């Protein structure tokens, strides 16, 4: 009986992981599309980027990540990735 429950739990975990991976791929494609639309439409870049680049230039990457997270509502990983793209 215990093996059956462990097996079912394992299948559920695999299913959830697959769905999360699929959603991450969709989000990346959507972000790429948004970036392309922004470039083609001539919309200005996010205003916070100038301040973040200044912090990066001063070697304050951690402060830049914190500012990006607070301003844009990003997670720690998303904030780090955002700052890495600005570098």
Explain what the structure shows.
The relative contact order is 0.08. The chain has 4 helices and no strands. The chain is an all-alpha fold and 87 residues long. The protein folds into 2 domains: 1-43; 44-86. It has helices at 2-41, 48-57, 61-72, 76-86. This is Ribosomal protein L7/L12 C-terminal domain-containing protein.
Question: Number of DSSP helices?
Answer: 4
Share of residues in strands: under 5%
Series of H and E elements: HHHH
Helix content: over 70%
The overall average pLDDT, rounded, is 91
Overall tally of domains: 2
Low-confidence stretches: none
Structural class: mainly alpha
What separation lies between the terminal Cα atoms? 54 Å
Please give the number of β-strands.
0
Biggest sheet architecture: none
Question: What is this entry, summarized?
Answer:
This protein has 87 residues and is mainly alpha-helical. It has 2 domains: 1-43; 44-86. It has helices at residues 2-41, 48-57, 61-72, 76-86.
């Amino acid at each position: 009986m215990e093996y059956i429950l462990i097996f079912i739990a394992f299948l559920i975990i695999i299913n959830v992981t697959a769905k999360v991976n699929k959603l991450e791929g969709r989000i990346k494609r959507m972000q790429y599309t948004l970036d392309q639309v922004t470039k083609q439409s001539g919309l200005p870049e996010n205003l916070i980027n100038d301040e973040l680049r200044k912090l990066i230039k001063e070697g304050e990457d951690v402060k830049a990540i914190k500012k990006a997270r607070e301003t844009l509502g990003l997670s720690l990983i998303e904030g780090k990735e955002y700052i890495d793209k600005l570098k």
